[in-house]
Design goal:
Structural class: alpha+beta
Shape: globular
Number of helices: 13
Number of strands: 14
Mean pLDDT: 84
Low-confidence stretches: 6-19, 23-32, 34-52
Oligomer: single chain
Helix content: 40-55%
Order of helices and strands: HHHHHHEEHHEHEEHHEHEEHEEEEEE
Distance between the termini: 92 Å
Length: 381
């Protein structure tokens, strides 16, 4: 321990520093120089994630959906978009690797990328290796007997924290806002017209199909219209079967976040009717047996793939300004897909609280159109 004389000298020195305005000014300058980069990042994040920022909206939409970066976008935003898009490409590959190990179903890739976006925005020269991407995606699943099983968001955030990626409440809130914007065009953000069916019928009827023996674009459109007329519900991971208690329990276990967070709503609104998710509306038609009118998982050579994988595997696709007027084409944006039925209308499984609805093609922020793989498009051309 220091002797009293030494302590007294230290106290006097401290008092002298505290009363010297020039010293405090110098300290202030040093602190400001240290904190300024962090303050700028915080300000930039606030700007990017602020609902009122046009650059924010453009940055989010372009990062997720692609497209040409306008010259009017500031350089820091353009760099951010380019870096984030590159990371998303690697994340998509890692998500696909994990989905192969799932026993049916798919990961919520938009949820995963929204969290990555919120966690990493502001990082300079952002990049992601395949190993880093796989480690990130693995935070959203557990492996049981070699099979990948999705975990709840609470567990996912805990695993991210253990991996050194702590998501504060603000980061989680921002991730949710981004997610809502990208998924189904942002349900709360969409102000266009939404038509709902609602007969409640669970009967599958192929009497209006042009050729039940083949999987073709016109019958896909007819199938989608039937789902709309009947008012099918939306449950993540389903594809047109009746939502029984046992199926609902399985989906609750399989998707504790995507289904579990809406358990009460689904139970009171969709239980007992037919339900689907966006890409399940297409897969359900592909898997429909016209003889038995049963939807058999993974049948008729149509694999269980997500909306993004369906778009990426399409051999015929294009930007929205080149879209031909052919019923049965799909329209796509990152993480979401719908079925064009002609006359400027789209039928889509829009989200848990919406179900299968009809929207105007021009009102939605679709990124591209495509001919769905495994569907015959010779009819109606």
């Amino acid at each position: 321990m220091a002797d009293p004389a030494t302590i007294a000298m230290a106290v006097k020195a401290a008092v002298a520093v505290a009363t010297d305005k020039r010293t405090w000014k110098t300290i202030g300058v040093v602190i400001a120089s240290i904190l300024t980069p962090f303050i700028l990042i915080v300000v930039m994040i606030a700007s990017i994630l602020s609902a009122g920022s046009d650059h924010n909206k453009a940055a989010i939409d372009l990062s997720f959906n692609g497209g040409n970066i306008p010259e009017t976008i500031p350089a820091e935003y353009a760099s951010h978009i380019s870096d984030m898009s590159g990371c998303f490409t690697v994340l998509d590959e890692a998500i696909s690797e994990v989905e192969v190990r799932m026993e049916g179903g798919a990961l919520d890739n938009i949820r995963i990328k929204s969290i990555f976006y919120s966690l990493n925005f502001g990082a300079e020269n952002l990049s992601l290796s395949q190993a880093e991407a796989r480690a990130f995606v693995d935070c959203f699943v557990v492996y049981e007997d070699g099979a990948a099983v999705p975990v709840s968001m609470e567990t996912a955030y805990e695993k991210l924290s253990l991996a050194g990626m702590t998501a504060t409440g603000e980061i989680q809130a921002n991730a949710q806002k981004i997610y809502e914007r990208i998924v189904f065009g942002g349900a709360e953000l969409f102000t266009g017209e939404i038509e709902r069916g609602g007969t409640g019928s669970t009967v599958l009827d192929i009497s209006l199909f042009t050729d039940p023996a083949t999987k073709n674009n016109l019958d896909l459109a007819a199938y989608a219209e039937q789902a709309f007329d009947a008012g099918w519900g939306y449950v993540w991971g389903t594809y047109g079967n009746i939502l029984t208690d046992s199926l609902f329990s399985y989906k609750l276990e399989q998707y504790p976040d995507g289904v579990g967070n809406y358990e009460d709503f689904i139970r009171s609104t969709w239980l007992g009717g037919r339900t689907t998710d966006c890409v399940g509306l297409i897969k359900g038609y592909g898997w429909l047996n016209p003889d038995t009118l049963e939807i058999g998982y993974g049948t008729n050579d149509m694999p269980d793939i997500g909306a993004d994988s369906m778009y990426k595997s399409a051999s015929v696709s294009g930007s929205m300004d080149t879209m031909p007027d052919i019923p049965g084409l799909a329209v796509w944006k990152s993480g979401h897909i719908g079925i064009y039925i002609g006359n400027g209308n789209v039928i889509e499984a829009m989200g848990t609280k919406y179900g299968v609805v009809k929207t105007n093609l021009a009102d939605r922020s679709w990124s591209a159109w495509l001919e769905i793989p495994y569907i015959n498009y010779n009819t109606g051309e």
